[in-house]
From TrEMBL:
This is Uncharacterized protein. It comes from Bradyrhizobium stylosanthis. It comes from the Bacteria.
Amino acid sequence: MISEHFDTRTRINMKLALDRVCRNRPDGEEHRFRRSVAENIIRCALAGRTGIGQLVDAGERAMITTRAEQEPA
């Protein structure tokens, strides 16, 4: 569970990062998209990078990867 690994500030930053990355995106409410972004944010935080900017960057990288995987070849 997330709360076991992170302090309150980090959990808040993670949620804010997820919301920032997903808001105003056409696919921002899709479960698969949000999960991919969240997983990358979690990996970033587990690596000790817990600042809001670092977490948003990690989420943005996941967004780019997810979209590239979904595009037809």
